[in-house]
Amino acid sequence: MSDSIDFLLCFDENYNIQAEVTISSLLENSNKKLNFHIIHDNPTSFEKTYKKLGVYSNLQSLELYKFSKRPDVIFPNFDESHMSEATYFRLFLEDYLPRTIKNIIYIDPDVICLNNFDIIAATTFEILNNSKYVIAAKTEHYEESDNDTSNRLELTRNKYFNAGVTFIDYEKWIKEGYTEKLISKMNYLGDRAVWVDQCALNSFIDGLYIEIPEQLNFTSRLHDNEYLLVETVFYHFAGSRKPWTVKGVYSDGETLYQHIHKKLYNNNYHIVHKYKKDSIYQFFRLIVSLKILKLKNPFTYIRNFVDSF
Question: Are 236 and 164 contacting, i.e. CB atoms less than 8 angstroms apart?
Fold first, then answer.
């Protein structure tokens, strides 16, 4: 069993704080030395953010790689008004990561870690390394053979995985030339890749992956924090309803994401506005419904909301 675990995160400066929360939660829940590899469009912007992480004795390394888009690559289905090029960064990991890495866990910066993962991660990689497959992930849903997703992505095994937490046998990835093949698949799919990199991955891999248990990429919003703290290792805030938005707080209350953020930022809430008018509307809903009183620090939230403008 290895004494260290490698993680890959890909994001831009709009997700610097979220990534810090993710990394902090991983360090809190491991007895291993952890190495973080970050592909970023503006690494300098994250250097200021990650200084708080130096307090963790199990942080072995944090490497920042500046993403440089290949001149011959065009990102399909890309609309800069509501998405970031960072969505595609992980497809190019072979261009940046050292080839001495054997295994690596890709994790989205909207995932938090709630329990120790050392043993289950080691077991997952043992199964993956002893298989013919390159990745391990959680199936998000099964597709009918003739539905839109199967036809659009040319799926023959009718499985579609959520790529937010992906265990990667990096030695096999390199040996089988996955980066070049994925770029070719991305170009081939074009606008059919609705969920961009995740669609390209699913179309190319087409169901040939190891299944990970749900607790390693738990996405359900139907359970309270007490349940999650017992049953979940990696909790993924998948979808558009994020815990740092006012709409997310109105819908889901004070999430465990905010608990971790408050530890890092002097008991302050993290509030981000996608559309300020909608944030104001959701804030008044929060007040009128009295849901704001269910927060642990409602007056702090009000102050943080005002300051966020």
Answer: yes
